[in-house]
Amino acid sequence: MNPKVNLKEIQDLELRYYAHTFKRLPVVISQGEGMYLYDTSGKKYLDMFAGIAVNSLGHCHPKVIDTIKEQSQLLMHTSNWLYTLPQLELAKLLTEITGLKKVFLTNDGTEAVETAIKLVRKVTGKKEIIAMEGAFHGRTMGALSLTSGEKYRKPFGPLLPETRFVPFNDIDALRGAIGEKTAAVIVEPIQGESGVIIPDENYLSCVRELTLEKDVLFILDEIQTGFGRTGRLFAFEHSKIKPDILCLAKGIGSGFPIGATLFSCDDFEPGEHGGTFIGNPLACAVAKTVIETILKEKLVENSEKIGGYLLNNLRERNLKVRGRGLMIGIDVENGEKTVLDLIKRNVLTIYSKNTVRVLPPLIIEKKHADEFLKAVDSIDSLQ
Ligand SMILES: Cc1ncc(COP(=O)(O)O)c(C=O)c1O
Fold first, then answer.
1. Co-location of 81 and 212 in the same domain
2. Is the pTM of this model over 0.70?
3. Is the same domain home to 55 and 100?
């Protein structure tokens, strides 16, 4: 069924034909099922990073497959010249589960952030957006302007003017930075790409209070934390707040590309924003199925339960570990080496510098967590 391609062959193909943008792990994946991925020789891997917090229902979930089959036989695309029901059904569902008022759908996370940037400029008439040091919001020019870190930004300037960074988890620094020109503040509830950096318990509620007091919009980027990842459907629920604008993607499609920007502030006018593919009926039908399945199968509760089990067990091993739900970081001496060691034990994770990031599908069971812990126990750098 799947061509048997070896690692060297595929690396040669990449060198020859693909942009030199990715530093990949040395595994060629050809299929997946549930919690497992299989390479072209049939070797089985436990997937503990879910395509960077994307495959919320694991791989090839039957409900996702059925929805793709059914919807693709009906309609895949018409553009936004015409109405389609799946788009508006998904929009309604998203407003119900977030408590925000309206939705603009996108193809991915960075577009959800671009939408937020345009929306705050439009509704406030101001331009300055304050982001956090260590933030990752995407790689298109607007989102990149709010992403900190020379490695992402340096070759691509000039970026958007009137963007600035303050230390994450420092409410006084944010208070000092907000001024007359500030349109919005953008925050991740937990910084994912930076290595699972969790702010103080009351940080988000302080940001909410401060942005209300100063009359600036609060954009929350839940592209990585949303849809059950942290043991709540949305991470803002831990803090009992609501942002003005909420960016979503990753877990919403369980592997099908789609994102969303939710907002309770004023709206765009027709023609001010759009996109050929956005909100296409196939992506929307899949996202609706994914959300309904997460809710019906109590996968948010599972994220809290198995996430807690993993965290406790990793802590018992005296590892330097932090996390919420199924968003876990383990500090090690050398992130890349530990991830490569785990691959030798048939376990897939990713790393940010010297933090191994554990982001399994929300369908993970205790037996999978134990399988992961067994691999951890067999690795010298994790002792
Ligand atoms: C918090 C956050 N925002 C935005 C993005 C960008 O999303 P995408 O890669 O879908 O453009 C990411 C991706 O890792 C993310 O983690």
1. yes
2. yes
3. no
